[in-house]
Amino acid sequence: MKLYDFELAPNPRRVRMFLAEKGITLPMVQVNLRHGEQFGEDFKRDNPAMLVPALVLDDGSLLTETMAICRYFEALQPQPPLFGTTPREQADVEMWSRRAELEGFLAVAEALRNSVERFKDRALPGPRNYAQIPALVERGKSRARAFLDDLEARLATHACVTGDAFTVADITAFVTVEFAGWVDVKPAAHHTALQRWHAAIAARPSAKA
Amino acid sequence: MKLYDFELAPNPRRVRMFLAEKGITLPMVQVNLRHGEQFGEDFKRDNPAMLVPALVLDDGSLLTETMAICRYFEALQPQPPLFGTTPREQADVEMWSRRAELEGFLAVAEALRNSVERFKDRALPGPRNYAQIPALVERGKSRARAFLDDLEARLATHACVTGDAFTVADITAFVTVEFAGWVDVKPAAHHTALQRWHAAIAARPSAKA
């Protein structure tokens, strides 16, 4: 088993934090996305989706998608549980993970990839090229700001995103908040609950993974 | 417990198919999205996210997000398993569910919501308004066609999306293929594996749910 990783990219960071919380280590192969290493022939042979993170299993098959990789390790090693345990907790983790991704993470990615020169014709990740759409930059930032507001409202009454327990939804939301800084969307002074939560997660050893 | 549903919309259909496969029935409340019933004060009180499907639990709390609702019922009633059983199966279901959603379903939604008059200023679902971006129409269709090609490649070697067993990934991919028809993206004559798979799922009783 080996994990294709890139230290500077937010999705691989989610996987590294998840593994650190589980205490799992595995061989990592760095793919420098800023140098275009995902387009190299060697990498494409292993990983036709040209995505990072990507987990190559011992039979040579490929697992892509951050959350699929995390779920694989959750199933292999359930402790500590990061996807909830009761039906309600599991559902809440799924709901908040998705909200953090669809409303937060993807909005930030949209603002970034449609504005930065190095993503010209690469406005979406994956094997196909798509041109940048300038109108998505401001919309992405606006959506990211709305997500921070929603996260603040949630964290005003909950210690962690889904309740008292730290879960993978906190990892996704935390990495999203950090990622939002790349497009100059930052927690505001009145986001006090969000800042308390952010500081608590930043202090976990996994935040350095 | 009650489920807010709208018979004509694709996400609620995914939940209805899932429940039908499980043999679960529960009270449904129709919210006619085409008549703007999601903006009504009664609905917003229960469901500030203004989304359908939405599950109101017995304690009055709200579960949104199609996949969170499905996972809730999977946890409550594991048989028949629709999210995989082994770690590898669970990971594959997650990977393919996400690919079907992010690369397929969201692309179709993008093409539809940015082109149709009734979604003017409602280019994204939820409580906030966003203007249409015309450039997303063609990009959405192009991505949806690419998804059909990828699905064909996968189904050429697998009976169902994740292998031999029917899972929630098939539900999402099936509803996505039907939804793509709304923006005139349809399986091509050479998508023979996809058409074989589509016909098999269309013949399941749950496809009528």
Q: Features of this protein?
A:
homodimer, about 210 residues, alpha+beta, Glutaredoxin, Glutathione S-transferase Yfyf (Class Pi), Chain A, domain 2, 2 domains, four-stranded mixed β-sheet, globular
Topology record:
The structure is a homodimer of 209-residue chains.
Chain A: E1 2-5, H1 10-22, E2 28-30, H2 41-46, E3 54-56, E4 62-64, H3 66-76, H4 87-113, H5 135-155, H6 168-180, H7 192-202
Parallel strand pairs in A: 1-2
Antiparallel strand pairs in A: 1-3, 3-4
Helix pairs in contact in A: 1-3, 1-6, 4-5, 4-6, 5-7
* Structural class based on helices, strands and sheet pairing of chain A: alpha+beta
Largest beta sheet of chain A: what is the strand line-up?
2-1-3-4
**Average pLDDT reading of chain A:** 95
Strands of chain A, total number: 4
Work out the radius of gyration of chain A. Answer: 17 Å
Structural write-up:
With 209 residues, chain A is an alpha+beta fold. Chain A folds into 2 domains: 75 residues, Glutaredoxin, CATH 3.40.30; 122 residues, Glutathione S-transferase Yfyf (Class Pi), Chain A, domain 2. Chain A contains 7 helices and 4 strands; from the N terminus they run E-H-E-H-E-E-H-H-H-H-H. In chain A, helix 4 packs antiparallel against helix 5. The longest helix of chain A is centred in the middle third of the chain and has 27 residues. The radius of gyration of chain A is 17 Å and the shape is globular. Chains A and B meet through helix 3, helix 4 and helix 5 of A and helix 3, helix 4 and helix 5 of B.
